[in-house]
Design brief:
- It contains 5 helices and 9 strands.
- By secondary structure, the chain is of the alpha+beta class.
- The strands form 2 sheets. It has a 5-stranded antiparallel beta sheet.
- β4 and β5 form a beta hairpin.
- The chain is globular and about 45 Å long.
């Protein structure tokens, strides 16, 4: 069926390109150097990481399966920096020395509700938000505030 093959081409993860070296430099600070990953970008700009030994297998699978994505989404380059994906925060690929914001229980619940969180900031830029050693998501620290990048559709909506 020709219409089915057109649909498959749109949903298959077949138009991957290796991430250019310049963009790899923007990703490097987020990624554990011991992870042994290859990075690919979709036509829409989403960057995914694949374990290097499995790249050929992933690429072969994309030709045969209706799957929109394989690997772990790393994020998108916007301007001159990476906007990290939530999947990266939840993965074991994050650099162990990446800046973190350590939250207490009430702060963590506020973060998960996407409410403002009172935290003393020492360094601007991207931070991995954690509670008791568990990653919750990303925050971007600016001069006087923190932007919460927890996925809006996952936020806690009940009273806490």
């Amino acid at each position: 069926d020709p219409s089915n093959s057109k649909k498959r081409k749109k949903t298959a993860f077949t138009h991957l390109k290796k991430v250019p070296k310049k963009q790899l430099e923007q990703i490097a600070s987020f990624i554990n150097k011991n992870a042994h990953l290859d990075f690919f970008q979709t036509e829409s700009g989403r960057i995914f990481a694949f374990p290097s030994p499995l790249v050929d297998t992933f690429m072969d699978l994309t030709r045969h399966l209706k799957k929109s994505a394989f690997g772990t989404e790393i994020g998108m380059i916007k301007g001159k920096s990476l906007v990290p994906a939530h999947a990266l925060a939840m993965s074991h690929f994050v650099a162990p020395d990446f800046p973190k914001i350590l939250l207490e229980k009430q702060q963590a619940l506020q973060f998960l509700k996407k409410l403002p969180v009172e935290v003393n900031f020492t360094q601007e830029g991207w931070h991995l938000v954690t509670y008791e050693g568990l990653a919750l998501g990303w925050a971007k620290v600016l001069k006087r505030r923190m932007n919460n990048y927890y996925p809006k559709e996952w936020r806690i909506r009940m009273e806490i």
